[in-house]
Structure formats: structure tokens, C-alpha cells
User: What shape does this take?
Amino acid sequence: MLAFRVDDMTCGHCVSTITKTLKTANKDAQVSIDLARHLVQIDAPGTHAQHFSNAISEAGFTPVVVEASGGNSPTVKVGVGGCCCSSSAGGCC
Assistant: This one.
């Protein structure tokens, strides 16, 4: 199981964008997103966390690894992003 904290995921559109991005990166990935906790969980055995981190970053978000393959990976901040709706006020849509 892989898990990322994505603090700049702030609305349903963000959830949809990230879900589609991850399914494009690996069509067999099982994706679960908790918007309130800004948590993205991915079950995709054999796929490295960096693969999904890069995909989320390319979609315009800032993923932070919180768990990778049993939690052995350190927390790493990757990429630069902002709300998919270009909101600077912290709220979205």
C-alpha cells in the first residue's frame, strides 16, 4: 500500500483529477481518496512510490509520501503545485 498526503487537494475536482491521473499511470491501481484528510491511498503491488508521486506532481499537486510498501520509506516532499482551480484563498470551487 502506498499513501500520500496531498494538502493542495481541496475539492471534488481535485479528487477526480488525481484519481484519473493515477489510473492512467497504472490502470490496475486501486485508488482510495479521503479529501477531508488530504490522503491518497494506492494499492498497486510492484509499482514504486516515485512513479505515482511523479504522476501526481505532473497533475499539478504536491504529494508527500506517508507510507510506501509497509511504511519503510521516509517522508519526502516532491514537486510544486497548487489548487487545480488556481484558488489562492485556500478554498476551492
